[in-house]
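Bumping my old thread because nobody answered last time. Still need a sequence for this structure:
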């Protein structure tokens, strides 16, 4: 099965979600932890296409935890804070931080460029109290 089709199946595309169900919770036979691991593997796979990595980065916003956050941070750094993939990872990371109500202050201080713009924009809209005081 092509990776794109597999990602679509993993995300539950083609079937309506039930109330309160995120896109990746729509596949009951795969646990949320397994979904997160599979998505992280796609981001870490050098053979994965850019669009597959992009989809995986965006889907990871529905998850949280050290594995997910460290992967997103690692990719943002590897992409030098500037690529489209870095921005998509930053968007997901900011979404996780806004949802969980906490940030990684050391990485927050490290942010720069388009990745920083994504994080600050999302936190500014969803959780402005999480922004550093000098940026509010």
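Sorry it took so long. Here it is:
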């Amino acid at each position: 099965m092509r990776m794109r089709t597999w990602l679509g199946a993993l995300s539950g595309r083609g079937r309506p979600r039930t109330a309160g169900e995120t896109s990746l919770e729509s596949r009951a036979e795969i646990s949320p932890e397994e979904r997160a691991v599979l998505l992280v593997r796609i981001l870490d796979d050098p053979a994965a296409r850019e669009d597959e990595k992009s989809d995986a980065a965006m889907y990871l916003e529905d998850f949280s935890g050290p594995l997910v956050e460290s992967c997103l941070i690692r990719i943002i750094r590897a992409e030098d804070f500037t690529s489209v993939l870095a921005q998509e990872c930053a968007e997901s990371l900011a979404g996780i931080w806004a949802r969980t109500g906490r940030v990684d202050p050391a990485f927050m201080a490290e942010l720069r460029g388009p990745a920083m713009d994504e994080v600050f924009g999302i936190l500014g809209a969803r959780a402005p109290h999480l922004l550093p005081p000098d940026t509010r």
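The longest helix spans residues 84-100. Let me know if any region looks off to you.
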